[in-house]
Every structure is written in C-alpha cells, then in structure tokens.
C-alpha cells in the first residue's frame, strides 16, 4: 500500500513538473516573441526577454526585460498597455497571475517620472523635505516684476559640453571634438546655452551657475584693493565704522598669466566693515567703490568677490552704475565666498567715469559685516598657461578646468590628474566645481564647500553619428544610478536623474514637433557610468541634443529659431522638474510681444507705445499678465524697466533726444524675451515727420547645399543671420562629398576650417530704427517714430499720417529652408504701400534682397516695377569690393562676417524703371545699387541696407540727401 502511495505521489509530482515545464516553455516563447516585436515609444535597440520567474504558490510572475526596454519613456498609460498586452498573451493556467515587469532593475511602473503621475508618487525621488530656506545667492532688487510661480530663488547648474583644452600628449591646445559643418561641439552647444537657455532660466527667477565662462566680452578689467592697476578702488568709512583688512586671504592679480596650481584668490587681501542700518540720504554714507578703466565701449559681465566671514550678512547691498542707470543687487555673503559671483551684464562706456562703477554699501538689515574684494568686468581672454602658453582664445571658449582655476577653486577640483591629463580633468571639473560650490548646502550636506544651494545640473552636448539617407539622429539622455549606493548626497534616490532626463527629452521632442511639424527622433535614456552624471551630488543628466556629424540634424541646429525652440523646451523641462520636486504649481513665462509701434501722443512732447501680447498655444499658463517697458536715451543703455498693466504706455519726452524702447511680457512665471527695439525723436524745430518701419525680422542659419552628391553649408553665399550674434562658427566648410559621411579629418563630409574661431559674429540686433533715426536726427528738422512691419500690416499704424516712410529690410528675404516667413514685401504690405504711394507719399526702402526676393512671380515684379520703379538685375556676389558710389560720396559696407555689424554677402543690383534714375553704383563694376523716382509720389530704393553703411557721417549725409529729395518742390 505504501509503495502505491509513493508511486502516486511521484506520478503527481512528475506530472506537475512536466505541466510546469510545458507552461514555462509556452510563456518563454510568447514573451520572447512579444519583446522581439515590441514597438517602443522611442528609437531604441530591440528589447529582449532576459528571464522570468513563475511562483505557482503565490500565483505571481516576474518578467525581466533587457536593459534596452528601459531606454524608452514610461507613462501610466504606457505601463497599463504593456501589462495588458503581456497579460493577454499568457496561457490560461497563469493568465490571472500577478504580473511584475522589470527593466533596469525596477518595475516599469516605477520608471514613470513623478511629474507625469497623478497618484502613488515615489517620495524617495522627491525633495519635499529638502528645500533651501535662506536668502538667494544673488537677487536683482531693481527687477520691476514679482515672480511667484517660476524658478524664483532656485539655484541651477548648467554647462555646455567641452571647450578648448591642452592636449598633454601633443603639447598643444585644441578642441575636444572635430570641426564639422562650420562648428565644433565645443562651440556649438554654447550657442544654445548662453543666448537662450541661461537667459530663459534667469527670466524665470533662477540663479544660474555655469562652470565655463559665460561672458563673450574679450576684454577683462579687474579692480581690486591690492592691485587697482589703471582703475580706481575707493573706500569711505564713518565715525562708527571703518574698513579694515579681513583675517583671511583675498584676491590679487599679481600677474597676467597663471601657471598650473596658482590661485589668485590667495594672493591678496580683502576688506571688511561692520554693517549699519539704513541711513538718511547723504548722511555718513559708507561704501567701497570700484571704478574700472575700460578699453572699449560695450557689454561687460560684472562679477564681484568677497570672503565669507563668521558674521557675514545675507543682504550685502551692491549697486552697479552703468549706461542705463543704477541696478541694485542683494548678495548673500554667508555663502559663495572666495570665487567670482555673477551679478549681470551691462553696457559701459570706454574709459572711466562716475556712471560706470560698482558700489558696495555697508547698509544691512542684519547685524554683522560686509566684505569687499575684487570686482571683474568682462569675460576676458584665457590666462592659464599650459605647456608654457595660453590657448590664445577668449575664456568662454576654454574648458571648465581653466575657468575653475581662475575662479579660485581648490587644486583638487580641477586637477585630479595632477596636470597630466587635462582632458579627463576638464570632464570631471564640471561636476567637481558644482559639488564644491554646493557643498555644505541642504542639497549637498555630506561635502564641505561654499554652501550654494545648487539643486540640479544639466549638461548639454551634441553627439556623433550620421545617416546617409538624411534621417534625423535626434536626442539622447544619460543618467547614472549605480553610484553611492543609489543615493544622491541629500539622500534622494538617484532615479530622480532619470526623471529629469525624461522630462527634458519629452519637452524637446514635443516643442520641436509643434514648431516644425517634424517627428523629432527621441533616442534612448541610458543608465550609464558617465562622469557628468555620476559625480554630481544632485540630480543630473546629459542631454545629447542632436548629432553634430549628421547633416539633417545640423540644418536645424544652425537655425536661431530652432535654438530658441530648444532653449525654451529645456527651460520648461527644468521648470517642470524643479516645481514637481517641491510639489509646487508653475506658470511658463510668456512669449515675446508683437505688433510693437510708437506714435506721437496727443499731448505735447509725448509718445504712445502700443503692442500685442502673444498666447502660447502649447502652454496655456504662458499668458501675459503685465508688461515691462525698457527705455534708453541716446547712446546709453537700457534702464531697469517700468511695469505696465496694459498693452499701451504713454511716455513724456524731451525734444532733441532720441528715445529707444523695448517691451517684454511678464506673468508670475517670469519674463519673455524682448521685442525689437524701436526709437523715436521729437525735433526742437520740427518741419516734417518720418515713420520708420522695421521690416528686418529675419534670423537664419547659413546657406544650405543639398544635392545628391554634395551636402553642407556655404558661408560665402550666405553666413546666415544670427540672433544678436553667433559664437559657434569655427570656419567655412570645405568637405562636401556625401560619400565621406561619418568620417573625420580632411576631405570628410562637413570638414571645416578654423578661421572664424574666437569671432563673435554680428547678427540681427533688432535695433536698426535707432541707426536710421540718428541719421534723420542729424538732418535737423525731422521728427520720427518707428513701428514693426506687422503693426502696419495689421492696420495699427496708418502710413498716410506721415509724409515720409523709411522701410528697413536689412537681410530680409524668403527662404524655403526657413519655416519662418521673412518676405520683403508681403501681400498686405504691397497693398498698403501701393495705397501710400498713390496718395502722394515719399517712400525710402533699403535692403540686400529687395530685388531678388521679389523677382519670382509676375505679381511681385509688377509691384516693384510699376509702384516702386525698380527692376531686379542680378546679385552682387563678388566680395572683392565693399565700395559703393553715389550722392557725391564713396561709402563702404561690410561684405564678410565680422564682430561690428552684420555682413552683406550678396547685395542686389537694381535698375531704374520708367522715369526713375540711378543714384548709387557698386564699384568697380558700376552696376546700379540704388534708384530714385520723382512723379506724383517719390521713391528712393537701395539694393543694400542703409544701416550697413559703415560711417555714421556717411549715413547722415545720405539720409539728408534722401530727405531733401523727398521734400524739395
């Protein structure tokens, strides 16, 4: 009997074993097939089934997918779909078992970022109980708007890939990445971060630190108590308080070139003084004053320095006197001592004067001391010698290793390899510098440092890789979890860095698609061991935005409109991440205003400014709430702005002065980018009025070559039109052979020269009504106002109200490769100008493409020939001469990229029609460069931009001649 029972038991076990084997074989086949055929929500390598475990007792199944399955973004709906799909394919006996699907060591539901969850948030990845409560490092007290739902008082670290460095093995300086498609990654990512990402974050109220130099000003002047040089350092004390040497070392610039390991922040002294409560005006004012002697007029970043002392205060009062007035800052000297502290970038005049300086008061609401050390004006040239010589480049083009040394960082921060491997040191410096700054803060309590509460880092890179079929490579994200036991220094789960990468990639893809209707490629999210994501003490990610080696990516990458879109996407992603970390609501800063116009007011000596706020269809919160009007007088700088609640503003002016204005939109999330700059002037003895229309809105990348065998960018045909300026070009492309795609070195597709490195190429400043207006002012009896072209097209300005119209077209032209519409004369503008001319008006038009851009259709040609009285002959592509003759003068315009004014690579040769006559010719070919027509109305048209005439005296004389032609009987 026992034998029978044992036999039956064995038979049952054996049957169960065979049954289980059969089920598991079935499950494995189905799961393997599922993952092989899986369609991901990102471009990832095909995922695979690694293993699975069935627990028959607990009725559970654990499925382990390959690492690549985690490369895609997960959302609650994605997770639900995957579980439903897998559940459906499981065989009957295990169909209702409890499923858990793992990828990257986590259940896939745990890979959904907190930001996209409605419930069950992972508190281990949040910063709900980790927040900085103290005063911000720097606060602009003069900012007229309050930000309450942006990034106010948040401290963020951003950096842009690589930078010029010393190659120890070759004993030479060079780039970390190859020169391709007119740029190198070391320069290319700068053109996203500096003009777009950082300003947008700062407009949202953030304090942004970047371990590479941020100022593109090549001059650098340091004013210090130890070494004032040709500048002035001044101290004033009182009966109660006097300046004395602090008990710690400070900055001194005792040499122009620094060697490895030398620290200028330990070479001198610093000064300190007890604080006092706010005093009555002009009564015993106590301050330190730094007055620089600047080599040139221009924009300079202002950096201050101090040492943090035991009783330092958190509200040290700094005043920056600049061309636009005075801007006040409060600096928290309890943190950030012994390094450069960025305040802002301002316009200053050449030389020294009492309206160009920095003042530190001892006024404070706290009982303690303020400390004064060196103040730096401008980014400067690299001054760290390696191998016996410096890079010879502006500091902003160098790697973080050298900026860190100049910023007083300890040797171990930037030279872990003891000077033997600058490449590795530079990579590590980016993170080490941030950790040194954030050490001793709530976000990095385990490490000693300067106490700056930097709470996240992002590195923007471009990647390698190419498609020979012109497919987009797209964006990749990187994060690291396998370090420090999976924790960041504040105790947060390192998977929060995946959340950051996911949010940024999602926003980038979404915004590019909405702006360009392009299915931008979203690549993987890698959990890998990269220094820039492993070392930071706080959440961190690398975003490989696109491939600098891929022609399709770079066609977009060089376009300033694309840079704006990406910059705004990155800003929005960071906003979403940080606010979700602290469970706060957010509002997105508005888009720039449109339809800006200035007209003379009804009251004497007043101007009426008007504009329209723009809604963002992608961001319902980004609605304008108020506006800021910034004012500039003459050649000065812009003031701190005036907050207004409506879309119009009345300004009282003084006759005889040229006033300029720009407008931004604001809401509780921050401030938009500015409008174009418009100018106005009331003549003391006015006889006529002129309205200037700014029709030069174009910004664009360089000319594109795209044939079956050649691809790239032709800087000689058209270097493009940068937004303000371009710091990303290394030189002209020389390799155009498509068959050499993916290679490096001479002859490879995209291979480029180095002749433009270090040049800050001038672009569209959106400030040309001022240049035209100054020439009108010089004529003596003309008042003028100005407006945007859309304000005219939309009927907000009536041209018939003005005897003379000056239409600025600059480098405006329609370009099929550019999504934005930049037609010289839109259909609406043609109708309006036809009506204006037929009413007896006087029309002055200038632009490089006034002929070529209007030659494509019969309707456009009829407008230029029958109304404006000129025809298109050809484009002047020969750049051997920049001379133009007319009105008894020989003038010059810039033909090649330069730092002073935008280049005119191909001005138009236009010829007179009907009774019009030539007034300017290009030398030496004698082609017609400008025409004038006198009939029932008058026109004066130049085939080159008036504002590109290099001499101010020439512009004044020519404008006087044009106005005289219009007004003579």
Per-chain topology:
Elements (H helix, E strand, L loop, with lengths): L1 H35 L12 E7 L4 E6 L10 H14 L8 E6 L2 E2 L30 E3 L14 E6 L4 E3 L4 E3 L4 E2 L2 E2 H4 L1 H14 L3 E3 L11 E3 L8 E5 L7 E7 L17 E7 L12 E5 L6 E7 L11 E7 L2 E7 L9 E8 L8 E5 L7 E4 L2 E3 L22 H7 L4 H4 L7 H17 L15 E10 L11 E5 L16 H21 L5 E6 L3 H4 L5 E8 L3 H7 L2 H22 L12 E7 L5 E7 L13 E8 L8 E3 L3 E5 L5 E10 L2 E2 L6 E4 L6 E7 L8 E4 L4 E4 L10 E2 L34 E2 L5 H11 L3 E7 H5 L10 E7 L16 H12 L3 E6 L10 H11 L1 E7 L6 E4 L2 E4 L14 E6 L4 E6 L4 E8 L3 E5 L9 H16 L2
Parallel strand pairs: 2-3, 6-11, 6-24, 24-27, 25-26, 36-41, 36-42, 42-43, 43-50
Antiparallel strand pairs: 1-2, 3-4, 5-19, 7-8, 9-10, 12-23, 13-16, 14-15, 15-22, 16-21, 17-20, 17-23, 18-19, 18-21, 25-27, 28-29, 29-32, 30-31, 30-33, 33-34, 33-35, 37-38, 39-40, 44-47, 45-46, 45-48, 48-49, 49-50
């Amino acid at each position: 009997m026992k034998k029978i029972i044992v036999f039956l038991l064995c038979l049952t076990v054996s049957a169960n074993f065979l049954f289980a084997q059969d089920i598991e074989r079935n499950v494995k086949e189905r799961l393997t097939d599922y993952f092989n055929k899986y369609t991901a929500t990102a471009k990832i390598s095909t995922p695979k089934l690694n293993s699975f475990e069935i627990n028959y007792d607990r009725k559970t199944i654990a499925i382990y997918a390959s690492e690549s399955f985690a490369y895609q973004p997960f959302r609650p709906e994605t997770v639900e779909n995957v579980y439903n799909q897998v559940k459906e394919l499981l065989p009957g006996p295990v169909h209702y078992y409890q499923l858990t699907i793992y990828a990257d060591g986590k259940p896939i539901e745990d890979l959904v970022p907190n930001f996209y969850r409605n419930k069950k948030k992972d508190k281990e990845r949040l910063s709900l109980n980790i927040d900085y409560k103290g005063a911000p490092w720097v606060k602009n007290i003069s900012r007229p708007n309050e930000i309450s739902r942006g990034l106010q008082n948040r401290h963020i670290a951003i950096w842009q890939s690589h930078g010029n460095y010393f190659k120890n093995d070759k004993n030479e300086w060079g780039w970390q990445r190859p020169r391709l498609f007119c740029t190198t990654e070391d320069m290319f990512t700068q053109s996203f971060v500096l003009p777009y990402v950082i300003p947008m974050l700062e407009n949202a109220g953030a304090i942004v630190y970047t371990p590479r130099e941020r100022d593109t000003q090549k001059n650098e002047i340091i004013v210090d108590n130890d070494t004032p040089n040709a500048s002035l350092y001044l101290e004033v004390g009182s009966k109660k308080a006097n300046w004395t040497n602090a008990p710690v070392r400070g900055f001194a610039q005792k040499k122009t070139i620094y060697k490895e390991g030398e620290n200028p922040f330990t070479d001198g002294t610093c000064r300190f003084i007890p604080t006092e409560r706010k005093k009555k005006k002009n009564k015993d004012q106590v301050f330190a004053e730094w007055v620089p002697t600047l080599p040139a007029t221009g924009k300079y970043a202002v950096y201050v320095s101090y040492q943090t002392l035991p009783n330092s205060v958190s509200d040290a009062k700094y005043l920056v006197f600049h061309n636009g007035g005075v801007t006040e800052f409060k600096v928290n000297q309890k943190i950030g001592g012994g390094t450069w502290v960025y305040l802002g970038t301002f316009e200053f005049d050449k030389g020294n004067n009492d309206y160009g300086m920095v003042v530190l008061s001892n006024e404070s609401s706290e009982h303690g001391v303020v400390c004064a050390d060196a103040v730096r004006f401008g980014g400067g040239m690299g001054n760290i010698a390696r191998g016996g010589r410096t890079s010879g480049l502006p500091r902003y083009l160098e790697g973080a290793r050298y900026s860190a040394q100049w910023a007083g960082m300890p040797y171990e921060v930037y030279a872990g390899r003891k000077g033997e491997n600058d490449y590795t040191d530079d990579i590590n410096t980016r993170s080490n510098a941030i950790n040194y700054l954030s050490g001793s803060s709530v976000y990095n309590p385990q490490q000693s440092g300067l106490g700056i509460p930097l709470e996240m880092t992002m590195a923007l890179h471009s990647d390698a890789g190419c498609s020979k079929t012109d497919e987009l490579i797209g964006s990749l994200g990187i994060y690291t979890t396998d370090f420090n036991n999976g924790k960041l220094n504040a105790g947060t789960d390192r998977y929060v860095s995946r959340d950051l990468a996911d949010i940024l990639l999602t926003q980038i893809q979404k915004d590019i698609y909405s702006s360009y209707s392009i299915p931008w490629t979203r690549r993987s999210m890698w959990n890998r061991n990269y220094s820039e994501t492993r070392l930071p003490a706080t959440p961190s990610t690398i975003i490989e935005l696109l491939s600098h080696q891929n022609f399709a990516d770079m066609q977009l990458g060089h376009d300033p409109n694309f840079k704006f879109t990406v910059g705004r996407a990155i800003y929005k992603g960071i906003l979403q991440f940080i606010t979700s970390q602290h469970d706060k609501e957010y509002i997105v800063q508005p888009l720039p205003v449109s339809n800006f116009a200035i007209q003379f007011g009804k009251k004497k000596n007043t101007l009426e400014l008007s504009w329209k706020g723009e809604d963002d269809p992608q961001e319902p919160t980004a609605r304008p709430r108020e506006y800021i009007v910034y004012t500039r007088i003459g050649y000065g700088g812009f003031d701190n702005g005036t907050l207004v609640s409506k879309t119009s503003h009345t300004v009282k002016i003084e006759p005889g002065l040229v006033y300029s204005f720009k407008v931004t939109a604001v809401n509780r999330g921050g401030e938009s980018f500015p409008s174009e700059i418009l100018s106005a002037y009331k003549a003391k003895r006015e006889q006529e009025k002129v309205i200037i229309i700014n029709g030069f809105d174009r910004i664009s990348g360089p000319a594109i070559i795209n044939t079956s065998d050649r691809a790239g960018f032709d800087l000689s045909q058209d270097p493009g039109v940068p937004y303000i300026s371009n710091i990303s070009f290394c030189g002209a492309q020389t390799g155009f052979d498509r068959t050499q795609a993916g290679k490096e070195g001479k002859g490879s597709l995209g291979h480029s020269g180095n002749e433009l490195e270090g040049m800050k190429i001038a672009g569209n400043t959106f400030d040309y009504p001022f240049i035209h207006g100054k020439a009108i002012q010089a004529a003596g009896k003309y008042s003028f106002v100005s407006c945007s072209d859309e304000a005219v097209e939309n009927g907000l300005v009536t041209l018939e109200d003005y005897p003379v119209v000056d239409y600025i077209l600059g480098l405006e032209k329609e370009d099929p490769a550019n999504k934005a519409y930049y037609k010289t004369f839109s259909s609406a503008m043609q109708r309006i100008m036809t009506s204006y001319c037929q009413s007896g008006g006087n029309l002055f038009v200038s632009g490089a493409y006034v002929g070529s851009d209007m030659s494509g259709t019969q309707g456009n040609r009829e407008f230029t020939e029958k109304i404006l009285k000129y025809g298109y002959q050809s484009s002047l592509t020969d750049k051997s001469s920049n001379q133009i003759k007319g009105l008894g003068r020989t003038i010059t315009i810039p033909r090649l990229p330069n730092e002073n004014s935008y280049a005119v690579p191909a001005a138009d040769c236009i010829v007179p029609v009907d009774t019009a006559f030539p007034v300017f010719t290009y030398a030496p070919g004698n082609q017609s460069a400008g025409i004038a027509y006198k009939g029932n109305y008058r026109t004066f048209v130049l085939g080159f931009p008036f504002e590109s005439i290099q001499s101010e005296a020439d512009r004044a004389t020519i404008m006087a001649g044009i106005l005289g032609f219009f007004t003579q009987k």
